[in-house]
Specification:
alpha+beta
């Protein structure tokens, strides 16, 4: 089921990294947070509890896989997971690599900045993302098979 006027039904929602039957993984563009990924459920669902028990396991396994690859490839201070859906009521999980030097750490990326951005460090992370994306593609393809 797709819903008219839903941005995640109409578009990928970011740079498509991998797409499967039930979900896709995208890299979002969020200034200051280069390693910001989303696991997006393909069929429109507003809430996690809208999914069957089996589909909830599939979804969370994908979230955990993305988290694991980000940890292995980028060694962040912390991974933030969030499924807010307040702005876009289409089930998606944010998987965000966070660093103790980022502008908002330890607060949420949606909170007030704690310090100035470190654009040199952000750029260093961004340069690693093609390799991260490749590792995500390989891991997700293996997981889905």
């Amino acid at each position: 089921m797709l819903v008219e006027n839903c941005p995640l039904c109409a578009t990928d929602g970011g740079a498509l990294i991998w797409s499967g039957e039930k979900l896709r993984v995208i890299r979002a563009v969020e200034a200051g947070f280069p390693a910001f990924y989303r696991v997006v459920w393909n069929e429109h669902a507003a809430e996690f509890s809208d999914l069957s028990a089996a589909d909830r396991i599939v979804c969370m396994d994908a979230v955990a896989l993305v988290e694991r690859v980000l940890r292995e490839q980028l060694a962040p201070t912390k991974i933030n997971l969030a499924a807010l859906g307040n702005m876009v009521a289409h089930l998606h999980w944010h998987v965000i690599a966070r660093y103790d030097w980022d502008s908002h750490f330890p607060a949420s990326i949606w909170a007030a900045a704690q310090r100035e951005r470190d654009e040199a460090r952000e750029a260093a992370i961004a340069r690693q993302l093609p390799q991260v994306d490749e590792m995500l593609q390989k891991a997700l393809a293996l997981w889905a098979s």
